[in-house]
Write a structure and sequence with these properties.
The protein is an alpha+beta fold and 142 residues long. It has a single domain, classed as CBS-domain. A hairpin with a 2-residue loop joins strand 5 and strand 6. The longest helix is centred in the C-terminal third of the chain and has 11 residues.
Amino acid sequence: MGHHWWKQDGVEAPRARTVMRTNPAYIGEDESLLDVAEKLAGTEAGEIPVCGPGGDVLGMLSQRDVIAKVVVAGIDPSTVTAREVATGGVVAIRPNDRVNVALQMMHEHGVDHLPVIEHRQLVGMIAMRDIIDHIPGPGGAA
């Protein structure tokens, strides 16, 4: 899946840092899934990064994870930590990556949001909607 529309007029795709949302919501690894549910309810994203005490992204936790691994299993969400349920192997991009790289990764991994990581630290989140809003010409806001 190639995204060449930025190249049509010789314009490079913007870098993730110019499109990403800074100060993203995240959950601490030792927070309960009850806290996770509250944070997920307050965000547009269906998933949230799980970070260690130093801010390293350890995994992602989705609404689907909470429902499938806790609610359906009949486990009390206040007794389970984010670390216990989070999905490891985080798919992420760097701030200097072009957004066409982000689109490719979203497509390949079936996600709509990616954490933006620099020096193993969460510095932002980028969503498909953020990228669409930066497409030049008709249909995009840029």
